[in-house]
């Protein structure tokens, strides 16, 4: 396995496929519009970048990051102790189910911290579903601390019923 950094749209289709695999199955199963998802990922790639975990040139994981100013859900009014303009946002960490538990998430976060331009960003923020205990535990071990939470309404796979996910924002100072 190797990890590369890219903001090239040539990976858009494969990242979109991975996102759909990760978030349309299991306990976080939800309806995902492929058109909206492509726009979302493309926006991140245009304004930020992806770290991609490759196995035999196939994407098995991705970390997507961009300026926090692009996260329209971030509760700016309740978080006063960080400069949003100087904060990088880990928008997504996705790992194919067959590769989970192998340290890829930790390696992503280590490489993310090493590759982040500290002259542009002094802080990092990540958002996670409060029921995703493995991810929440990893982020805390990596030095991220909770700073805010939101509720996000999602569509069930049938595209009709909704459910609510409680999301936690975690923050880390970059040095």
From TrEMBL:
GO terms for molecular function: acyltransferase activity, transferring groups other than amino-acyl groups. It holds the Pfam family Acetyltransf_1. The keyword Acyltransferase applies. Keywords: Acyltransferase, Transferase. SUPFAM superfamilies: Acyl-CoA N-acyltransferases (Nat) (SSF55729). Residues 2-175 form the N-acetyltransferase domain. PANTHER family: N-ALPHA-ACETYLTRANSFERASE, N-ALPHA-ACETYLTRANSFERASE 50. This is GCN5-related N-acetyltransferase. It comes from Paludibacter propionicigenes (strain DSM 17365 / JCM 13257 / WB4).
């Amino acid at each position: 396995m190797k990890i590369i950094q890219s903001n090239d749209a040539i990976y858009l289709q494969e990242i979109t496929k991975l996102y759909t695999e990760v978030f349309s199955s299991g306990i976080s199963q939800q309806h995902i519009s492929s058109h909206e998802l492509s726009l979302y990922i493309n926006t991140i790639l245009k304004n930020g970048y992806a770290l991609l975990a490759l196995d035999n040139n196939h994407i098995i994981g991705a970390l997507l990051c961009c300026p926090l100013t692009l996260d329209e859900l971030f509760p700016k009014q309740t978080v006063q102790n960080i400069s949003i303009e100087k904060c990088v946002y880990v928008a997504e960490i996705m790992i194919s189910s067959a590769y989970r538990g192998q340290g890829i998430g930790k390696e992503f976060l280590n490489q993310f911290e090493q590759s982040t331009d500290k002259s542009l960003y002094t802080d990092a923020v990540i958002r996670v579903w409060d029921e995703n205990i493995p991810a929440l535990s990893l982020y805390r071990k990596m030095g991220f601390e909770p700073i805010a939470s939101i509720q996000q309404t999602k569509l069930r796979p049938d595209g009709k019923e909704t459910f609510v996910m409680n999301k936690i924002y975690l923050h880390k100072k970059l040095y």
